[in-house]
Amino acid sequence: MSDAGSGPRVSRAGITASVMLATTIYALDSTIANVALPHMQGSLNATRDQVSWTVTSFVAAMAIMTLPIGFLAQRFGRRRVFLGCIFGFTISSMACGAAGSLSEMVISRILQGACGAAMVPLSQAILLDTYPPERHASAMSIWGVGVMVGPVLGPIIGGWLTDSYSWRWVFYINLPLGALAFLGIMVFLGESPRKQVRFDWFGFVAFAIAVGALQLMLDRGERNGWFESEETIVEAAITAAAFYVFVVHLATSENSLVSLKVFKDLNFTLCTTLMLVVGMVFLGSMVLLPLFLQQLRGMTVLDTGILLAPRGVGMMVTMVIAGRMAGRIDSRILMSLGIVMAMIAMWATSGFDMNVDDWLVTWTGLLQGGGLGFVFASSSALAFVTLPGQFRLQATGLYSLFRNFGGSVGIAISVGMLEHFAAINRGELGERLTVFSTWFHDPGATMPWLPPGLVGTAMLDLELVRQGLMIAYLNNFLLMAVIGFIGLPLIALLRTPKSIRQA
Fold this sequence. Notes:
By secondary structure, this protein is mainly alpha-helical. It has two domains: 3-191 and 257-422 and 470-501, MFS general substrate transporter like domains (Growth Hormone, Chain: A); 200-256. The protein is 77% helix and 0% strand. The chain is built from 23 helices and no strands. Helix 6 (78-98) packs antiparallel against helix 7 (102-116), helix 8 (119-130) packs antiparallel against helix 9 (136-164) and helix 9 (136-164) runs antiparallel to helix 17.
């Protein structure tokens, strides 16, 4: 056992329980607020695309702060960094619950995401070091179950708290959970050796500027008319320049935040790319579906949470199955099966209507979650199995970064395209109604539910908006299904070592 498991008070079970609790808090908070977005929208006086900033700011901050995790763990020790992250995450959660405006909420979510960035990669690296290599697949399945508790319980708890109390309590609930995780890490986790290393400020600032500018461009692009706006052009230019400077710096600097040597490992490179794609589909759909069910289906927050829970259940079950099947079935087969399952579910979701049956929402969520569970578990095992141990902490951070970055881009694109499709669809539907349409001359025969005159015209216009928005949701779900299938060719290139096949 390595440093993660050193110390007289440390036990493997205690480390696992404490690390999983911290991971669960992060996973819970990444989904618990989604069902409350419509309520937050009204309370914070925000539009549909503006309230999505509370999600994208959280994910983008996590992506930025994932990069220096390796430096922080080496300089200050894993235990200190972990405790600091849990403390900061809990305090910023309280600030989110107390936010009185959209700007306050976004700032608090940025702080929350920045503090929570290290929790997942550190927990993953600690478990990999705590368990021997032959038990890595099982350890990652256990870790994955902790990650998936959030998608299972998050929507239900978030819906119940919002319905019974207020959306603010979806953040306040982190206080007791954070305190318990803090105590567990203090008691069970031993400190790792520290090194005097220099921080690569130049690389970090370049990366932060690139991600921040890209997120602004994606979040505000639709509102500004994309490249018809000078603001969008400037943001795109800054993004391209900053990413270029960052990549050149990585290739030429001896003291960079990330060693490009980790990308020489084919499995790791392919799996991180796959996580970028899966993150776009998973987190993008997780934001759209609650909005659809509440705004168009007319469901309560609690009922929405209950209908979203099967996705997490399916994910948890298949992650356990994947762990038990490690060594018996080629992981690439499980990953391919998972991609196909998830994308079939997304394709079925693109056929929903405003009166969609609860059972249809349930089984599509179960199927999508089950497919993503196979992908996450198998990818986590294959990504690090051929990677040298000295790169493990840095690699787990990059792995989480790609998933979070993909999710941030997916959310921004899906919400932006939702507004774009809705406006286009509303216009196309309206073009079919003219003064020569039958309704204007005999409304009672064609649409008896509409009153005559201006009142009926206003109601008809409102219905056109709803129908246009409905089609926009379906277009987005179909787009997510198409994006997901990009992952299949990547899986075919993965290598499965003999140590996995013969375990």
